[in-house]
Amino acid sequence: MEQSKNRMQKIRSLLEALLGAWLVTGVLLLILAVLLWKLNLKESQVSVGITVTYLLSCFTGGWILGRKTGKRKFLFGLLLGICYFLLLLAISMIAHPGGLPQVRGILTSLALCAAGGMAGGMLS
Asked: Where exactly are the transmembrane stretches of this chain (predicted)?
């Protein structure tokens, strides 16, 4: 019974951290959209902005989850980054059926999300 309760608490903490990461994503993408609108950013600048958004969002989520769990913070941060990426991939597949980017782009996004989450967990 105690182990089941502990597992449910960890899942709840993961979901709360994912929510925090997605809130940061929303704010950062809103800022990026305003900058794009006002400054007419180039495609390369927008790409950098999206990369920074992935990193900061996963870092924030990993940091939140690391604070909540207290043990194996880097593993929980890594888990958060992977879960964030899987949700991102699912949303991309729903929004653009049959239009996924190349495997290299997918793996790069996975690495960014995983590294950001792990760094957040380690530094929490």
From this structure: 21-39, 45-65, 74-94, 106-123
Helical H runs in 40-102?
43-69, 73-95
pLDDT digits (tens, 9 = 90+) for 101-119: 688 888 999 999 999 999 9
Tell me how far apart the alpha carbons of residues 55 and 69 are, in angstroms, rounded to a whole number: 21
Distance between CA 25 and CA 17 in Å, rounded?
A: 12
Find, among 122, 89, 124, 80, the residue nearest to 108 by Cα.
Answer: 89
Report how far residue 25's alpha carbon sits from residue 42's, in angstroms, rounded to the nearest whole number. Answer: 20
Mean of pLDDT values over 55-72: 94
For residue 102, count other CB atoms closer than 10 A to its CB.
Answer: 8
